[in-house]
Amino acid sequence: MTALLFLTLPATRFAYLLLALLVGGESAGIPLPGETALITGAVLASQEKLSLPIVIGVAALAAIVGDNIGFYLGRHGARRLLARPGRFEERRQAFLRRGEAFFQRHGGKTVFFGRWLPFLRVTSAWLAGAHHMSWPRFLAWNAAGGILWAVSVGVFAYLAGNLAVSILHDAGYVVLALVALGLLGLAFWYLFRRS
Predict the structure, then answer these.
(1) Which of 161, 177, 171, 182 is nearest to 49 (CA)?
(2) Tens of pLDDT along 103-153?
(3) I need a labelling partner for 76 at 20 to 30 A (CA). Which of 18, 84, 85, 191 fits?
(4) Looking at 6-134, which runs of residues are DSSP E strands?
(5) Long-range pairs for 137-144 at CB < 8 Å and ≥24 separation?
(6) What is the CA 90 to chain-centroid distance, rounded?
(7) What global pTM score does this model have?
(8) Is 109 exposed, middle or buried (0-12, 13-18, 19+ CB in 10 A)?
């Protein structure tokens, strides 16, 4: 779906704005296809429809800003919900204590490596904020992870996009037809096996 949105937009600032909104929203904690948007943008850059340095820069900045919004929401919203008295209060307090100890020891690694893991990419900023990770430490690990994630995923998708185009150009549509037939055969095999 993200690819279709990118393709319907002109290769202008609107594509970059959509990329920023999807990556930033995902980083802030909304389940959006942020990484898919980065991959799509980088593949479009391999086709010279977008600029790869701008795609990487926008994705990195959006990831950092989105994570900081998620951190703030975790610190002030999620923390308040978890710390309030009421039903399951003991369990929530135990969760906060364990989380705080975890983020004291492993918070930087969690924020940094969480950029590459789908579930943590959406939740690590909230969890870091809710478990009182210090903001300067969070910001440093978040910036390092956001920049390296945007560069690594962006460059990989850019190179993969070039490779896919050259394969299609060299082998023509025969390879594409063989892949489609193979997928169709697998689908039929799966359906017959179930019945």
Answers:
(1) 161
(2) 777 778 888 988 888 887 887 887 888 777 888 999 999 999 999 999 999
(3) 18
(4) none
(5) 137/107, 137/108, 138/71, 138/107, 138/111, 139/68, 140/108, 141/107, 141/108, 141/109, 141/111, 141/112, 142/63, 142/64, 142/67, 142/68, 142/71, 142/111, 142/112, 143/64, 144/112
(6) 33
(7) 0.73
(8) exposed
Signed CA dihedral, 11, 14, 17, 23: sign only: negative
Give the total residue count for the chain.
195
Look at 83 and 153; give whichever has higher pLDDT.
Answer: 153
Percent of the chain's residues with pLDDT above 90:
29
- The answer to whether 18 and 9 have CB atoms below 8 angstroms apart is yes
